[in-house]
């Protein structure tokens, strides 16, 4: 685009306008668009020339070549004829003038041929320079794009590693919270169990004291009845049996920790067990 601005223009709607098409214009064209965020998108389009008109071009080139050769031949023939006629029909002075004219024509022809050669060489040099410049720009663009792709891949890898670290930290934090919560719940259960066990022990000792007092009152009442009846033998037997029964039933040294005893528990305390 920079080297062919006089015949290639990008219009406002984004299309490419070529004033006159050459054979060197065929090939791949790449359109690249970059937004303000730095995202680059490209589209490659291949331009192919219509090969159906090539036979006509060849025919026209052949005809033009034949016309040029015929004109050169006619010019040479006219030159030869004029030279021959000048030599034979005109005097020496005219012959010298004609020779001078012929020499001038030869010089002009050689000058024009030299200019044509120089123009051809200059055009060829421009084409070579343009080709080398485009190749160099393509290489620079390729290197730049490869560097950008590499930097983008490195940024993506860093972002992925950062996300993985964040997920790991979040997982460890949640796991620590879960462990703390479970240990707290276990401690609360232990405290509740110890409190319920203390309440059960207190309730058992209270019921045991009440039963003992009640039994003593019944025993005294029975003893009073036996005293009024004057039954000494029965009283002795009854005392021994009561003492034995009391020693068997009401034992103070019982173990509450191993669970070897069973006490009647009212319904209002069953919710704590």
Which descriptors would you attach to this protein?
Ig-like_dom_sf, 273 residues, two-stranded antiparallel ribbon, Immunoglobulin-like, transmembrane helix, 4 strands, two-stranded antiparallel sheet, 70% helix, mainly alpha
What order do the helices and strands come in, and which of them pair?
Layout: E1 8-10, E2 16-18, E3 27-34, E4 40-47, H1 54-89, H2 92-229, H3 232-249
Antiparallel strand pairs: 1-2, 3-4
Helix pairs in contact: 1-2, 2-3
Tell me what you see in this structure.
With 273 residues, the protein is mainly alpha-helical. It folds into 3 domains: 49 residues, Immunoglobulin-like (Sandwich), CATH 2.60.40.10; 114 residues; 77 residues, no CATH class. Helix content is 70%, strand content 8%. The chain contains 3 helices and 4 strands, in the order ββββααα. The strands form 2 sheets. A two-stranded antiparallel sheet has the order 1-2. The protein has a two-stranded antiparallel sheet with strand order 3-4. Helix 1 packs antiparallel against helix 2 and helix 2 packs antiparallel against helix 3. The longest helix is centred in the middle third of the chain and has 138 residues. The radius of gyration is 62 Å and the shape is rod-shaped. The C terminus is likely disordered.
Structural domains: how many = 3
Q: Which structural class is indicated by helix and strand composition?
A: mainly alpha
Shape: rod-shaped
With helices defined by DSSP (H or I, 4 residues minimum), what is the helix count?
3
Computed CA radius of gyration, to the nearest angstrom = 62 Å
Could you report the average pLDDT, rounded to the nearest whole number? Answer: 78
Fraction in helix: over 70%
InterPro entries: Ig-like_dom_sf, Ig-like_fold
Transmembrane segments: 59-87
Keywords: Membrane, Transmembrane, Transmembrane helix
Organism: Tegillarca granosa (Malaysian cockle)
